[in-house]
Amino acid sequence: MLCALLFGGPLCASAQTATPASVAKNPLGDYTELTDTKPHDGAEVWSRMKKPVELVWGNTDTRYKKLDVPKLGEKTTLWRAKAWKGERINGQAVLWTREALDDVTVTASDLRGAGGAVIPASAVKASFVRYVMTDELNKDGKGGCGHRPDRTAWDSSVVADVLDTVSIRDLQPRSAQPVWVNVWVPQEATPGTYKGTLTVSGRNFKPMKLNMQIDVVDRTLPAPEDWKFHLDLWQNPYSVARYYQVPLWSEAHFDAMRPLMKRLKDAGQKVVTATIMHKPWAGQTEDFFDSMIAKTKKIDGTWSYDYTVFDKWVDFMVNEVGIDRQIDCYTMIPWALSFDYFDQATGRVLFVDAKPGEQAFTDYWLPFLKDFSRHLREKGWFEKTAISMDERPMKSMQEAIKLIKEADPEFKITLAGNYHDEIQADLYDLSIPYTHKFPEAVKAEREAKGQVSTVYVCCTEAFPNTFTFSAPAEAAWLPVHAVAGNYDGVLRWTYNSWTADPLRDSRFRTWAAGDCYIVYPGDRSSIRFERLIEGIQQAEKIRLLRGELAAKGADTQLEELNETVALFTPEGLEKSQMEPSAMLTQLQELLNTL
Amino acid sequence: MLCALLFGGPLCASAQTATPASVAKNPLGDYTELTDTKPHDGAEVWSRMKKPVELVWGNTDTRYKKLDVPKLGEKTTLWRAKAWKGERINGQAVLWTREALDDVTVTASDLRGAGGAVIPASAVKASFVRYVMTDELNKDGKGGCGHRPDRTAWDSSVVADVLDTVSIRDLQPRSAQPVWVNVWVPQEATPGTYKGTLTVSGRNFKPMKLNMQIDVVDRTLPAPEDWKFHLDLWQNPYSVARYYQVPLWSEAHFDAMRPLMKRLKDAGQKVVTATIMHKPWAGQTEDFFDSMIAKTKKIDGTWSYDYTVFDKWVDFMVNEVGIDRQIDCYTMIPWALSFDYFDQATGRVLFVDAKPGEQAFTDYWLPFLKDFSRHLREKGWFEKTAISMDERPMKSMQEAIKLIKEADPEFKITLAGNYHDEIQADLYDLSIPYTHKFPEAVKAEREAKGQVSTVYVCCTEAFPNTFTFSAPAEAAWLPVHAVAGNYDGVLRWTYNSWTADPLRDSRFRTWAAGDCYIVYPGDRSSIRFERLIEGIQQAEKIRLLRGELAAKGADTQLEELNETVALFTPEGLEKSQMEPSAMLTQLQELLNTL
User: Global pTM?
Assistant: First the structure.
């Protein structure tokens, strides 16, 4: 094959298949999906195809099945979409074939507008959609929490989710191959209509073309770093080191994380996830989090702290990646109240077991918090750093807060938990489930004080969520849902706590499949992640339009906008009886025409 | 009881019995011995005593039984002994009683000589001898090595060995209480005869007196730090921390070690035992040795080393205790080739498994050895520090030596192992079993080069040894034995690797009882240790007299001395058919009269 010459190494399937077994274990290049064991269209259905290969535009709400003839209404070869300047929009084409296709590639042309205006082909990303094993909600349909020791108790199937970086593929006979198209309209684009084509070509068939037409609206979406929507997906550097088989915190590790974290930054992420103790979440993920700060108890009874890893990680995220708004440090009150330190006397890592309020807890944390404050101020990071907690008993949280304030009264504190009137004022960033509302006066006061108030999403929510089996529209619906609930953003507990074989199998020993991660190894995005970004962009557009309409006193339009946004609540859903995807279409049309 | 007023806390039995349970577990003050289950003299034997209590001088070669009427020849109330100025001499009195005795104490008077000369009472130490559980040699009589999982397979009994620091005791009816007397003749004492008394008194009997007469010879034994005999008993600081229940390397730990290590220094110890890795001896002792130097592998791949513990320990031993001749660092080639380091990336202690000659072994040791050399030179300790090994396969030892020399060609190296012609020249200090002889030319060459050549003693030797069941004379015989074999001293593999309950039970899961330690917790010496010092003093006296006699050409006397010393060899024993104790008596008489 010529792919190495045509496409370069990293994206080349054949180049990757020649790599040693150690890489085959955790593939970064091409890989073989798990077998879809579900019933699918047989040869007789596929034989009814009028042409051996077909290519049309589908929609972004559907996870097209791999072994079924796609069920499409009118077969269209034109994708028409509207976008603000600076906005990213998604389309999905579907290729399906009766025969084997060799060396299939997809290329996008420049999108050309009037008077020589152009959106360059480099702004158009076309990715093969790949299939991953998923499961389903708990049998009661109420969520995806709990241990799943017996996989047969949850139905499994493969679903389209991974957006591959491998750009050349062989297709087997009687299979569908969706192609995800993402256009990032430049901020400096001239408003107007742009046209271009998407070409699918290969070795043993004639090139096929689809048309694209983007109407660029004369409004500008700011760059992601300027978005106000507070996105917080927890990063897991330990997963990356394990999957990429590189030494933790080595240059190779940072090289592996760079595109992954830049992708997160481009989604408007505001927070760096940092860990200040061993197993802040009791090692619940495939790769447990460890402490980024080594605490040494010296033989004279004093402590010393090694910030090398913390500094390198934070510096990387803040200065190199550009996620620079907030640094959340987990945690002083983990579920297992056992705290690691290196004991200079014995040369061993030991653990102190202590509850908040106990002397041993204070002895461990107070000197650290004081030194940490000093260090953060020295680095210029103090103002953006928070000591972060998960929901724990009230007394524990209060004792922890007391101690933090004793160390430095200006320390920021965050909580991912429930709403508690007693402590909310102390929490710079408070993330609570949608079922917990901020009282209106409290929310206003928090806003006035510059405090962040987000909605917390994990396995608990059946809808909207970003499991691998969730309807793609849910990911886009979620941020608007947050805005509709008067939250400042969304905290979803993980960005990339990968499972053992994340590219092939999104199921995990606990929680519904896909709960642990939303992007894939090898710098691969997902349908879920692209649609989440779509939703965040709508949230930003709502904010900008609300401001603009209020400023010019366009009350009718503002009311129309607010009414549409209000649909994105449990009550709105109930009352309108609309599908989330239809609701999004309606909202987007409004945001693009107001 | 009034003991607190009379004797002060630490030495007071009653004060100690009031201490909490945690101290009772590892007693430092008074304690209850294990029961002697052996047959012993019954009431009818004891009833034949003519007086209810008796006190006479016994000898230092006998471990008097606790529950037997002592078997003594002529009952003497006068102890006559000869000593050089600066020499320590031992005597043993025996007290035995038909009735219970309360609050028994022993006091020594000043020893007075002619013209107002005096050896003050403070130079005379009288200690109650206590009983410890022992076992025996292996059934083949050939040594004490090997695991002893089934205690019943070795006969056990209690034997007199511990020299107590508790100075007031209640004696049970029908029991013997030996009293060990040690007189440290001041170096500035006027030669001549000194007389004094030893008084035993108590609450329910009349004080009893014994006489002491020391003839101080006009020769001076130098202070222990100036002895040439190379004594090397490995110290175990970890045992002390555990037994005393104090944090490792804390001030309390050093307080506990101070008298213990000063006692060792006063025996002429030349070497500080230091450890540079986790479990240099695979954790074979009750308390495993750990690394005194923390090695940190940083995320940039370089290493950093924390010498805090090493420096504190060495500084304590060298500058405070005064054991300042040599610092032996164990080990690069342990039995289990697994090497600890703190991994900055993961915050964990990890181990690298590597054999000498492998790249991973070099990667671990070479940067350390280089930095260690730099650090030692900075501290002014380089000249006295050695990288120390135990016997390992020749190839391993050669690879280790090569690496050490690559790091710093001037590094000293020691081996406790067998004689190997191939590497002996590289070994600054080589300790070998008595069965391995240094070829005469090699020994001379080593002497000329200032290299140390000692005899190694462990569980292998049935005789002479310092097990708790060994005849007391063996401990004194051993150093002379070393001199007779043309060795520079003795390496016995441990000074204080205490068993779980060392005061009461000297048996261990491996090796014959007493192999692991020769002194006891609570700053207690032993019959074995005092007699070992006696033997080392004879070795020094031999050295000094040989020099003196050679200098003045007293060939006859020199020959007589050398012939007597030659008795202390396997051949001498065989040929003379003398008891070791008698041989020692003959030697001492000669050394005091030549």
Answer: 0.89
